[in-house]
């Protein structure tokens, strides 16, 4: 019975994670400047869609490495963590790399990652994360060119809602 209660408490916590982060989404969206919002495609994913996306991952490795490229407040990462923590078969560790170019959103993202850590800890999963406050497209392009002796990064899973104008309209970043 105690085990069952602990299990229910854990499932509820990971379930609450996505909804808790949704407060960040609503608050951040209210504060965003319209010009910047359009320039960087800052249209965040609602919880139901984020949960659906997360549910589609197989993600059955012992160690998972997730890329969230253009993470916003971290709704997709939170949905991924919530999903994985609720599964009967869980990894022993998750590493998240979250890129966000907008510093005002990165503040919320940091809090989201802290919450992800707490939920992982309560599910017995080791959690590591890297919040990268820079341009994912530039970093990705550099990495592909092996510039500056950068070791190529590898990920098991990537989750994104890419609305970046740059990703569509910067052919020089892609083909140079
Ligand atoms: C469509 S929103 C999606 C946010 C979040 N993934 C979600 O689904 O709610 C795209 C996000 O990517 C960020 N972004 C846009 N261009 C970027 C770039 N080149 N590098 C890193 N982040 C970027 C924006 O600031 C925005 O937060």
Classification by helices and strands: alpha/beta
Give me the oligomer status.
Answer: single chain
Number of helical regions: 8
Task: Report helical residue fraction.
Answer: 55-70%
CATH architecture: 3-Layer(aba) Sandwich
Are any ligands bound, and if so which? S-adenosylmethionine
Tell me, what is the CATH class?
Alpha Beta
Strand content: 5-15%
Task: Give the overall form.
Answer: globular
- Could you spell the SSE succession in H and E letters? HHHEHEHEHEHH
According to CATH, the fold-level topology is Rossmann fold
Mean pLDDT reading: 87
Profile the largest sheet. Answer: 4 strands, parallel
Number of domains: 1
Distance between the termini: 61 Å
Number of strands: 4
Side-by-side strand order of the widest sheet: 3-2-1-4
Radius of gyration: 17 Å
What would you say this structure looks like, in words?
The chain is of the alpha/beta class and 176 residues long. The chain has a single domain, classed as Rossmann fold (3-Layer(aba) Sandwich), CATH 3.40.50. The chain contains eight helices and four strands; from the N terminus they run αααβαβαβαβαα. A four-stranded parallel beta sheet has the order 3-2-1-4, covered by helices on one side. It is globular and about 50 Å long. Bound molecules: S-adenosylmethionine (SAM). S-adenosylmethionine binds at residues 40-45, 70-72, 75-76, 99-102, 105, 135-137, 160-161, 163-164, 166.
């Amino acid at each position: 019975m105690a085990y069952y209660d602990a299990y229910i408490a854990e499932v509820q916590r990971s379930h609450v994670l996505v909804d808790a982060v949704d407060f960040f989404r609503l608050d951040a969206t209210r504060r965003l400047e319209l010009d910047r919002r359009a320039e960087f495609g800052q249209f965040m994913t609602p919880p139901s869609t984020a949960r659906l996306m997360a549910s589609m991952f197989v993600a059955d490795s012992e160690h998972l490495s997730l890329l969230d490229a253009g993470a916003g407040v971290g709704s997709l990462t939170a949905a991924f963590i919530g999903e994985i923590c609720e599964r009967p078969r869980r990894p022993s560790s998750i590493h998240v790399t979250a890129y966000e170019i907008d510093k005002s959103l990165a503040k919320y993202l940091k809090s989201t990652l802290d919450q992800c850590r707490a939920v992982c800890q309560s599910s017995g999963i080791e959690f590591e994360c890297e919040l990268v406050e820079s341009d994912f497209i530039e970093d990705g392009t550099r990495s592909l060119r092996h510039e500056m002796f950068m070791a190529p990064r590898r990920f098991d899973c990537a989750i994104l809602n890419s609305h970046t104008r740059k990703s569509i309209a910067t052919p020089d970043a892609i083909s140079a």
